[in-house]
Design a protein that fits this description.
alpha/beta; CinA-like_C; Alpha-Beta Plaits; MoaB/Mog_dom; six-stranded mixed beta sheet; 15 helices; Maf protein; elongated; 41% helix; 25% strand; single chain; CinA; Putative competence-damage inducible protein; Molybdenum Cofactor Biosythetic Enzyme, Chain A
């Protein structure tokens, strides 16, 4: 089957709002084993929306429209879909009651168009909006003995995702996968690029049937998604795990762990908890990014004791008591300063480990050092401090900072994995 997504909204075309909905829906459909073949973005214009719908109708079995179902006169998605497929719009009483209650609680008067949000297809299925006011709606059509599904979802990303997860997913599965379940398993790897992993898995990818293999990449952080369908969830899970074992065996040194949203931060925190070790940070080039990313992990307070963001030379001197002469002799971007930052941090915070990061994120060079040169030090009690140098050329600031953060955390990860 072929799926297509139509994002509706003139603000998307003008660039005022980034079209994240299409990416989210595409990923969710892929997780269900449904491929998105086409994507369209169209403004709040009836003629152009009809053209987009006509094109999608000619080539796709599943059409999902996001946006254009709100309370203003340019919210025309449901009206255009209803007219195109020759169905009526009726009021969803449950959604209308919620709209009225909301306006009453806010001491606001309903406008003549607020009822738009409660409209749904008369011969379709309504999706109640628990987190917003505009209900979604779905049509299931049989054309030439073949199913076609058209779904309208809200534009606000949080509402859209909630409605997809709670209603649209089950609706789609019931129609297109009546006798099977789909399960996905996510494997996470660090230190290898997407191309390197693809090469090592090439024979599995070229011969894939069930499960299917998909690879997603960030800088030096790669997720491999396995998706299988079977009559029972346990069967699909077993198929995924069988292939996962083969992949992990091949890439064991880079394997982080399982999970769609698993991160190197989570891996490091769990390892620190397991080994009963503590960590502190002294950051310059990353500006607190490592600390921030770690504090997103539940339970990190057991192992993260604190740290310093010493973005200037003077902050390093005042807060970490780094010798001004050391900085002058070696430059602030140097292995010596990174080591001094880590060793001062471990002493001040009294932790088992401390990281020190200094470098050049750009856009300009610093004291003759090129953009992308970074030094990371890992200090540990009663052991020699380890220092590594990164060179990340021709990358924007956020990529240099992100990759430096991951490399710093990987130093601890590799040490604790031994």
């Amino acid at each position: 089957m072929k799926a297509e997504i139509i994002a509706v909204g003139t603000e998307l075309l003008m660039g005022y709002i980034v079209n994240t909905n299409t990416a989210v829906v595409s990923q969710k459909l892929l997780d269900m084993g449904i491929g998105v073949y086409y994507q369209q973005v169209v403004g709040d214009n009836e003629e152009r929306l009809v053209e987009a719908l006509k094109l999608a109708d000619s080539r796709s079995d599943l059409i999902i429209l996001t946006g254009g179902i709100g309370p203003t006169r340019d919210d025309i998605t449901k009206f255009v879909v209803a007219k195109y497929y020759q169905t009526e719009l009726i009021q969803d009483e449950r959604q209308w009651e919620k709209i009225q209650s909301y306006f009453a609680s806010q001491n606001r008067q309903l406008s003549e168009t607020d009822y738009f949000q409660a409209l749904t297809f008369s011969d379709g299925t309504s999706f109640f909006n628990e987190v917003g006011l505009a209900c979604g709606s779905a049509l299931h059509l049989e054309i030439n003995n073949k199913s076609k599904v058209v779904i309208t979802l809200p534009g606000p990303p949080f509402e859209m995702e909630h409605m997809f997860d709670h209603y649209a997913r089950d609706y789609i599965n019931a129609i297109f996968h009546p006798n099977s379940v789909i399960e996905s398993l996510y494997l996470n790897f660090f230190g290898l690029g997407e191309a390197q992993i693809a090469i090592q898995l090439d024979d599995l990818i070229t011969s894939q049937s069930k499960p299917t293999i998909a690879i997603y990449a960030k800088p030096k952080l790669v997720t491999v998604r396995l998706t299988a369908n079977a009559y029972l969830a346990q069967q699909a899970q077993a198929l995924n795990q069988e292939l996962a074992n083969i992949i992990i065996n091949r890439l064991s040194s880079a394997f982080l762990g399982y999970g769609q949203n698993y991160t190197i931060e989570e891996d490091v925190v769990q390892l620190l908890i397991q080994h009963k070790k503590t960590l502190s940070l002294a950051e310059s080039v990353t500006g607190g990014l490592v600390l921030e990313s770690l504090t997103d992990i539940e339970g990190v307070s057991k192992v993260l004791k604190g740290g310093f963001v010493t973005y200037t030379n003077q902050a390093k001197i005042d807060l970490l008591k780094i010798s001004p002469q050391l900085i002058e002799d070696n430059s602030v971007v140097s292995p010596q300063v990174a080591q001094a930052m880590a060793e001062a941090c471990i002493k001040i915070c009294g932790t088992d480990f401390a990281l020190g990061l200094t470098g050049v994120a750009g856009p300009d060079t610093l004291e003759g050092h090129p953009v992308g040169q970074v030094f990371i030090a890992l200090a540990q009690k009663n052991s020699e401090t380890q220092v590594i140098e990164l060179n990340i050329p021709n990358k924007p600031r956020h990529v240099i900072r992100y990759q430096s953060k991951n490399e710093a955390l990987n130093l601890i990860r590799e040490l604790l994995k031994k």
